Amino acid sequence: MLLSLENVTFGYLGVPTVENVSFSLHEKERVGLLGGNGEGKTTLLKLILGELVPDSGSVYVKSGLRIGYLAQNGGFESNSTVYGAMKEVFAEDERLLTRLAETQEKFALAAEAERLALSSQLESLQKRIAARDSYHVDVRIRTVLGGMGFEGMQEQIVSTMSGGEKTRLQLCRLLLEDPELLILDEPTNHLDVKTLFWLEDYLLTLKGALLVVSHDRYFLDRLTSRTLELEQKKVTSYKGNYSKYKILKEERYKEELRAYEKQQEEIAKLQGYVDKNLVRATTAKSALSRVNKLERMDVLERPAPPPAPPRFRFGYDEKPYETVVLAPRFDLYADKKLLLKDASFTLMRGEKCALVGDNGTGKSTLLKFLKTESAHVQHGKFVKIGYYDQENADLDPEERVLDAFWGCFPALSQTEARKILAQAGLFAEDMEKKVKELSGGLRAKLSLAVLEGRRGNVLFLDEPTNHLDLPARESLEEALKAFDGTLLFVSHDRRFIEAIADKIVLIEDGALHVFTGSYAAFLDQHKRTEKNEKTEKAASPEKKEEKNGSYRSREERAKETRTKLRIKEIETRLESLEEEEELLNTSLAENAADYKKVLEITKQLDALHAESDALYAEYETLI
Q1: How far, in Å, CA of 75 to CA of 448, rounded?
Q2: Strand bridging mode 378-379 / 323-334
């Protein structure tokens, strides 16, 4: 067991945030922690980390437990380069390699009497280095940085990077540290879909335990095998991932409700008998036995129904013509940077289209470009666009929440305005706050309520699920599925895209690629296309050049063929070297007392590592 909480209660100003919470985490477990906005998930994590002390109850943590923690928007700060900051994680590996080199040098110069002790040191160092895989630190760093989107950025100074990039760097550090327990609070923020898939694959290979807070259902389903839900200050454990948890939670509520109702029937039956028979001499004794049974009974509380999720309903007053948006030919720029060249885009009535692509490819920029008519963008007749801005920039932060909404729709009565806000998930006390005092999730709900009131027949949504908790996401998802208007949206929530989109537009390599069909089918085709391109490139490099309209000489084609052959040779040789290293380490352990043999083996290992480093360096120049 890594840690456990026993009857933990904690609150602020005497008001409990969590109450009598008990659960344990075990080695190699993969656990998702769920809860609505403001339920206390971050507080619970801080109790585990020891940053908060419980008001009552106990938190037990395994002695010496190595915990890695990624806070929400918790960026990494450093004046080093990206690569240098990651290399700091492996200071112990550098120390071991330096000690090995020094010990080998001493061994070569030592007298025979000293060599036995030195050979033992060499054996111990070799074992530790092999166990830590210290010789492949560079490969591990470049693998993680490349997968997390930092390819080509290794020499950039960390302090010059954006907040989102620093958060991703902090996650890179944690992955490289490989802690016994990795705690991630919303790790999918700031990640594009490509990076999300890579991160999931990487986390599946981790040896340690994982505790993750996330609103990404796809992420939770792939990674977790147990779900903890924090609701109404209590934690309930469910066996299974997010999809399984949804089923089990509903079954649990129904079962508890049946047990409660059955007991209430029994209580009513017993009480009825007592009321009728207690005063009769002939039946008083049996009535008293039922009184005793009632007094001994552990009366169940009626189970609280799951909190009602927010409700959204999008409608419009008039249908537009069939072609909703037409942009036949345009270039797209952002801060003088060309994102799309000679692109075209068409959106037809009733389509539900998702814009996807890596971060920085221009998804949000394209959405804003298309929502406004211009010389390059035409809107169809009767088109009325409702736009959702992920930054909620159209809300005045100093305005009272009720006024911010009511001011958009002055024809509504105050009662009607309050009702719509309540349906969106804002309580009476929220409506009296200033907009700036709302959490990100509540601001998103306010913006969605405003969007609902606009009654657009075409909705442009820029990351509408950001900040929303899972019930709110699913409610919005259902509302948009039921909406029979037209939809163009940007989202990193893969389950959200999968549920809604019937058309996918991928922004890649400065161009728009249109796919008609489900998101799952798009992903499948995209993977097959990438695989085919790699296969085609490897089998026939000439075709790629012809496709690009360039000419290569016979010498150039021959050079590329030689390069591919050399890559294959290096890969084969590296595999062979790994096997040789394993055999040499085994031999070193078996011959620790034979200093001549030890010296011979260490020289072979040095030569092997030198060759391996040289091959990796050459490999990087070829791929």
Answers
A1: 29
A2: antiparallel
Give the span between the Cα atoms of 480 and 386, in whole angstroms. 13
Residue showing tokens 């100003």:
13
Q: Strand pairing of 181-185 and 209-213?
A: parallel
| C-alpha–C-alpha distance, residues 527 and 194, integer Å | 11
Residue pair 440/466 in contact (Cβ under 8 Å)? The answer is: yes
Collapse the DSSP code of 224 into the 3-class scheme (helix H, G, I; strand E, B; otherwise coil) and give the result.
coil
Predicted pLDDT of residue 577: 83
Cβ 391 vs Cβ 383: under 8 Å: no
Residues in the chain where the model's pLDDT stays below 50? 542-551
Residue with tokens 């996330």: 214
CA distance 92 to 176: 13
Burial class (CB in 10 A: 0-12, 13-18, 19+), 120: middle
Up-side HSE of residue 243: CA atoms within 13 Å toward CB?
A: 6
Cα-flanking dihedrals φ and ψ of residue 508, to 5°?
A: -150, 135
Q: What is the pLDDT of residue 573?
A: 85
pTM score, whole prediction: 0.79
Q: Which of 85, 67, 66, 87 is nearest to 170 (CA)?
A: 85
Measured between alpha carbons, how far is 30 from 283 in angstroms, rounded to an integer? 59
